[in-house]
Amino acid sequence: MADTTAAQLAELDFATVSPQEFARLVKGLSTKEIREIMRGELRLQVLRAVFGRMERQFRPDNAGHTVALIRWKVGEAAEDAETVFETAIDKGSCAVTEGRSEELPKVTLTLGDAEFLNLVSGNANPVTMFFARKLKVAGDLSLAARLTHYFDIPKA
After folding, report:
1. How far is 13 from 53, CA to CA, in rounded Å?
2. Rounded CA gap, 117 and 111, in Å?
């Protein structure tokens, strides 16, 4: 199944696939299958596509006057494949950049590839992930808890 799904991901046009379709695809994969797919050359393509959608899925009314930099560290630490993206929320706007800036984030979220894809596709509960230590949070815990309200999270 992982080969079929990897092929589906390789052919996936992220510009046209809905967040719900992506969520269904992720939901059909085991953690092991996601990790296998994310070891390959598709990894950065998938991460860029997901983070690229974040600005469109931002809900400015819910974020209100929030000003914050959120740093995402995604990857399997043992494989030294951690990739960093940052989400800057500024009073109703959202901008995503790849890489680590010099700015101090209000919160840093660290999680593995599979956990990240499950989280952003609505297939995992962030509170459960936090208590299971699959999601590490450094910094403003209350901001981290509100993030799911700032974005439209798809449902599979």
Report:
1. 13
2. 10
Segment 12-40 shows an average pLDDT of 82
Which residue is listed with tokens 């901001």? 143
If DSSP codes are grouped into helix, strand and coil, which group holds residue 11? helix
Which residues lie below 8 Å from residue 97, measured CB to CB, with a gap of 6+? 85, 86, 88
Write out the residue range of the structural domain in which residue 151 sits.
1-156
pTM of the predicted structure, to 2 decimals: 0.87
C-alpha distances in angstroms, 18 versus 14, 49, 84, 121, 135?
8, 12, 24, 11, 25
Q: Which segments of 89-140 does DSSP mark as H helices, in order?
A: 113-120, 126-131
If you average pLDDT over every residue of the chain, what do you get? 88
Q: What pLDDT shows up at residue 1?
A: 46
- Which pLDDT belongs to residue 135? 96
* Residue range 126-133: mean pLDDT, rounded: 95
Number of structural domains the chain divides into: 1
Query: Which residues, 6 or more positions from 13, have their beta carbon under 8 angstroms from its beta carbon?
Result: none
Q: Domain of 25: which CATH number?
A: 3.30.1050.10
